[in-house]
């Protein structure tokens, strides 16, 4: 794929992006959320049509008009959500739509024999008559791979295929991936787990902001270089530009522990996470996409069941069964996807803002409109929400102002602990600065704040402490002068107690030039 361009509604998703994958190699395609990985894959597999550029596959130029055309051309894709028929058998799923026939009837003996031979070649011994619904996620991944091989796929794309697997299942899957590679097939492997990339991939392509910014053999890029390349910060830049001074706030005494989460577990995304948040401080959860930050936060809010570990609020152990329990105990959570889990597009700003606190505004079964209006007007002024009036549909507001309305929704419930999952995602630079200012003001007023942010610069500017997560585990805690972009990258790359590559590099180099940094 060379010089691929793609725009949606005038917004460029890909700009002269490139991807070259050889037969007989496992090729990692990585980048932060929104980097363009999914768009590249969808163009390659015919789900999207490119605006410009060239695609060559197997030595000839191709232009797949649909995913089916791509499959017919030898490209199979295995997504995070596996596309199998649960109540059908393993064998049926492998040959679905391509069943061998004899005398016009499905040849079940042949189907079972071929399916068994395929899975045996993967090193699996399993009854192919077993319904897929009774199989583990790892086995379902194997079935999807077997289906691709049975269709004579020359390229297999694995999009976050390990996200729901434990370590043993991942190694089982990697054994099969290596066999595909040794058989001469090309594998594109999309993952945010750095250790997995080095375990199974031969080469890597890094994307950022819709562009290809690096392509190299895996052994040529260490973990730190991968992280800095994905985030778009040179080593020299993060060493020379420490976080803004937090001395004034650090000098203030912080209050009591509002949240104490110890060794939280909920496989496969959260394996061992410990977080404490005190009144009057903002704590950041740092890590790459897929590290388990959102999943850990959902556990703390009672949105997902806790498999292990303990939670305490204000010093008292709690067992949160639902977000309702969390809200009753003074918690609030602003979710990452404001369109899917936040705003109600057809409702007004007034209605959206008072959804959570509405029961407190009801008197004799009727909403007290005067109190509701006073509350809404107060937050419009205090948060600087730009709108025509409170009856304006929220869908008409900018992303930044929608985010402020959602923040006001939770603040209206008077929480003592505020969880913010990517509060600045998808909003412009000016709105990001305003949201950051609001977070600092809430912290200074004594609220306990726990937040995530993919942009390290934003997290470092707001947080007093940072818990660094990697592969579902909290691996480092940083605060004060140690809380810098450089130290976070170091912890992401190596974890707690790993080699301090940044410190070593600072003494020996002035800059690692990232391809595409100056383009």
Offer a concise description of the structure.
By secondary structure, this protein is of the alpha/beta class. Helices cover 35% and strands 23% of the residues. Helix 8 packs across helix 19.
Describe the 3D structure:
It is a peripheral membrane protein. This is Sugar ABC transporter ATP-binding protein. Its main location: membrane. It is found in: Cell membrane. The structure is a single chain. This protein is α/β, with parallel strands linked by helices and 519 residues long. It is built from 20 helices and 25 strands. The protein has a six-stranded mixed sheet, with helices on both faces. A six-stranded mixed sheet has the order 19-22-23-16-24-25, sandwiched between helices. Strands 15-14-17-18 form a four-stranded antiparallel sheet. The longest helix has 16 residues, at 167-182. The protein is globular and about 75 Å long. It starts with a strand and ends in an 11-residue tail after the last helix. Mean pLDDT is 85; it is low at 238-245 and 505-519.
Please count the beta strands (DSSP E, at least 2 residues each).
Answer: 25
* Biggest sheet record: 6 strands, mixed
pLDDT below 50 for ≥5 consecutive residues: which ranges? 238-245, 505-519
Beta-strand portion reads: 15-25%
How many helix segments?
A: 20
Membrane topology: Peripheral membrane protein
Keywords: ATP-binding, Cell inner membrane, Cell membrane, Membrane, Nucleotide-binding, Repeat, Sugar transport, Translocase, Transport
Subcellular location: Cell membrane
Pfam family, one: ABC_tran
């Amino acid at each position: 794929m060379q010089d691929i361009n793609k725009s949606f509604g005038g917004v460029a998703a890909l700009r002269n992006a490139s991807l070259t994958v050889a037969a007989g190699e496992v090729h990692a395609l990585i980048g932060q959320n929104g980097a363009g990985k999914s768009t590249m894959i969808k163009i390659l597999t015919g789900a999207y049509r490119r605006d410009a550029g060239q695609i060559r596959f197997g030595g000839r130029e191709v232009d797949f008009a649909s995913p089916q055309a791509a499959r017919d051309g030898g490209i199979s894709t295995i997504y995070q959500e596996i596309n199998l028929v649960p109540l059908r058998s393993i064998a049926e799923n492998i040959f679905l739509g391509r069943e061998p026939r004899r005398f016009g009837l499905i040849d079940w003996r042949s189907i079972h024999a071929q399916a068994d031979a395929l899975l045996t070649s993967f090193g699996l011994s399993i009854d192919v008559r077993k319904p897929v619904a009774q199989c583990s996620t790892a086995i379902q991944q194997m079935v999807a791979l077997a289906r691709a091989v049975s269709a004579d796929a020359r390229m297999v794309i694995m999009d976050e295929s390990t996200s729901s697997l434990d370590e043993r299942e991942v190694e089982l899957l990697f054994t099969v991936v290596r066999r595909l590679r040794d058989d001469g097939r090309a594998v594109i492997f999309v993952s945010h787990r750095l250790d997995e990339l080095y375990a199974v991939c031969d080469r890597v392509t890094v994307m950022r902001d819709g562009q290809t910014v690096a392509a190299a053999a895996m052994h040529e890029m260490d973990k730190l270089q991968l992280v800095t390349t994905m985030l778009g910060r040179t080593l020299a830049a993060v060493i020379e530009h420490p976080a803004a001074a937090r001395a004034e706030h650090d000098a203030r005494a912080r209050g009591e522990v509002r949240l104490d989460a110890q060794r939280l577990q909920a496989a496969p995304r959260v394996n061992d996470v410990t977080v404490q948040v005190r009144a009057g401080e903002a704590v950041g959860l740092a890590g790459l996409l897929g590290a388990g930050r959102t999943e850990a936060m959902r556990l703390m809010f009672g949105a997902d069941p806790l498999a292990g570990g303990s939670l305490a609020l204000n010093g008292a152990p709690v067992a949160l069964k639902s977000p309702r329990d969390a809200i009753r105990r003074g918690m609030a959570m602003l979710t990452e996807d404001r369109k899917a889990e936040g705003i109600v597009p057809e409702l007004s700003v007034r209605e959206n803002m008072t959804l959570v606190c509405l029961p407190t505004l009801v008197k004799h079964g009727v909403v007290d409109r005067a109190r509701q209006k006073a509350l809404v007007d107060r937050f419009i002024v205090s948060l600087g929400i730009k709108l025509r009036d409170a009856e304006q549909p929220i869908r008409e507001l900018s992303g930044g102002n929608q985010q402020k309305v959602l923040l006001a929704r939770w603040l209206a419930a008077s929480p003592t602990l505020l969880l913010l999952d990517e509060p600045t995602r998808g909003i412009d630079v000016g709105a990001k600065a305003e949201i950051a200012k609001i977070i600092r003001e809430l912290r200074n007023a004594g609220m306990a704040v726990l937040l995530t942010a993919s942009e390290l610069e934003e997290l470092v500017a707001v947080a007093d402490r940072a818990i660094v997560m990697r592969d579902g585990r909290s691996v480092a805690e940083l605060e004060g002068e140690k809380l810098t972009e450089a130290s976070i990258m170091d912890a992401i790359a190596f974890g707690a107690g790993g080699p301090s590559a940044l410190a070593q590099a600072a003494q020996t180099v002035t800059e690692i030039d990232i391809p595409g940094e100056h383009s």
